[in-house]
Amino acid sequence: MKHINSILLFLILTSCSTSKKLTKVNSQPTKFVFKKSMFFSINGAIEFKPKADSLMNRETKKLQISEFLTQTPETEIHIKIENDSIWRHIEQYGKMIGDYLMVEKSNGILNYYDKSKTVNYKKYDLFAKNHKYEILENRKDRKKINGYDCYKLTLIKQDIKNDLVNTIYEMYVTNLIELPIHSVVNITKLVPNTFPMEIIISEKNLSGISEKYELLRTK
Predict the structure, then answer these.
(1) How far apart are CA 169 and CA 172, in angstroms?
(2) How many CB atoms lie within 10 A of CB 15?
(3) The model's pTM
(4) Do the Cβ atoms of 18 and 26 come closer than 8 Å?
(5) What 8-state DSSP symbol labels residue 83?
(6) In whole angstroms, how far apart are CA 12 and each of 18, 60, 102, 112?
(7) Which end of the chain is more exposed for a tag (fewer CB within 10 A), N or C?
(8) C-alpha–C-alpha distance, residues 209 and 219, integer Å
(9) pLDDT mean across residues, the chain
């Protein structure tokens, strides 16, 4: 009798453990909405001097950049996970603009679809270019975002052929969501199971302008 009770107790504990694991996996959100904004600092922007020197004076340049950014409305990036496919689209003032982008989770293939999600009219391999990255991880710099514990991760893409040279991705990421960085932004490097909850993208030689992605909600 004691032997039977021991077996029953083992089965109950095993069942509870399995249930907890399934709950943990299934509790991961499958829908994300990010707000994308542009930020501008006049002092930083006027420091940029491209190889092809412009005749435009500083004041005119500052005014044009400022007007461009203030007239650029905030947009929302909508992300939906379906198995190993990541569907992404952009909304502005509550309406979808452009078409759907389907990103394959493991290989970074971008598939461009029309609004019906039935016509795949273009493909692009995100990882085809072998860019060099410097990775800076700071697990002491932490932030709680939407209930998830996040730490600071900075990726610096080095591109000497570009006037702006380095692209800097400053992020707060979590390992608790099993999705890569390229779920949210097109980055030419696979960083698996490191989901960004907040991103600031800037150029080394154009420090006055940056893009910011902030997580608004999940489901």
Answers:
(1) 10
(2) 10
(3) 0.76
(4) no
(5) T
(6) 10, 73, 42, 48
(7) N
(8) 31
(9) 81
> Which stretches of the chain are DSSP H helices?
2-26, 42-45, 58-70
Question: Which of these ranges, 43-47, 59-63, 78-82, 195-199, has the smallest mean pLDDT?
Answer: 43-47
Cβ contact 94:111 at 8 Å: no
Q: Is 61 exposed, middle or buried (0-12, 13-18, 19+ CB in 10 A)?
A: middle
- One-letter amino acid of 27: S
Q: Is 204 helix (H, G, I), strand (E, B) or coil?
A: coil
The length of the chain in residues reads 219
- As a whole number of angstroms, the distance between CA 89 and CA 78 comes to 5
State the amino acid at position 115 in one-letter form.
Answer: K
**Strand 31-40 to 166-174 pairing:** unpaired
